[in-house]
Design brief:
single chain, 231 residues, mainly alpha, 11 helices, 0% strand, disordered C terminus
Amino acid sequence: MELLDGLNCYKADAEFWNFTSRLERDAERVMELIQSFGPLPSEDALLKAHSLLVEIELWKAGCIEELTGNYAIRNLRSAVWNALRDAAVAMRANRDVEALLAIMRLEGFGKYPDEDNRRRAKRASAVLRIINPYEWGVVDWRTAAMWGFLDRCGWDLSQAVDAAKKEDENNLRRTFDVINEDEASAYNQTYRDKRSGSLPRAADVEMAIFGLSSMAWPWRSMSKIARKPVA
């Protein structure tokens, strides 16, 4: 088994993969708008950035509406624009934690303090992954847990998946419930370090590891993806 097998597993959910690919294209256009307008966006540009955030929230929830919390829509359009703009500046300067914190200013994406006074960067990592997939992947309980099994098994992928199958996924979900900005940055760097010719983007590595995790703990997005491009 190779990491590419994990990515192919991820892509096997064709509807979700098509949504992912479309979101990346939408995000590219929104980031072009941010580059063009800077601190003085048009109303249409603000709307497109805000709509992108709403869609990323749905995507991160596996397209299960009731799991989104519907937080993204509560953020002011100007706040979303400024967060994306500040994150882009931080990413260009290779300031990973600063990029995460820019997104974490937004409600539902790590705004502090949260309901139990903890800092959570998982949703923020999803935003950075969509707007900059070459340098960022999602950090969540699945990838964090699966990475641990891979390390313990010396990156024997088949052995790691078999070991993961023996663990209770609910316990792992609780273990990795809180991943802060420093931890998310460290996990993301491991994605970058594993990039290769067949997995050239950090997001490709992350999706491959997510795919391996779904071999151990089955996952299926219950898609309601009748969405239009936002830009």
